[in-house]
Amino acid sequence: MALFGTLFDGLCIIIGSLCGLTFSKIPMRYKDTMMKAISLTVIVIGMQMAFASEKILIVLISLLFGSLIGEYLQIERAFHRFGEWIGSKINRKDTGNTPNKISEGFVTATLIFGIGAMAIVGSLNSGLRLDHEVLLTKGIIDGFTAVILTSTLGIGVLISFVPIVLYEGTITLLATVIERVVQK
Question: TM segments (predicted)?
Fold first, then answer.
């Protein structure tokens, strides 16, 4: 099943967010230590992927053009507007989840979980080769990150699983279609 890695990543974000809501009083020193471990892991994975690439110039150009296109389209601004809209629909004063806090959690988590090579390469691998290893690894990283983010930023982090699953799922499904067309 091509979407296994995507669904696993989404499930990890949900479980991590629910744990973060349940254990919202995680001491800061534990959060800091976990984030350092996650950051180190992501750096090592990124370096491995970069060293494995024989076309580093293509990677650099892709990152530069992707950044420019994202800025031109004001994607981050659109995420903020969408997050504020979601926050206005979920506003629950009894829990302290104001629209701004929900928006901040949603936008922060969506950008952290969605931006990066693991989301794209993992989705492509899932769609083209049915190799889910990158998305499974990303899911575990995202799950632990969701615990930390949710304990700090609240329920908006949980909602971020929706655009992440749509984003990764779309790339995965497009990759399966492209593979079928190419094989003909």
Answer: 6-26, 33-50, 56-73, 102-124, 144-167
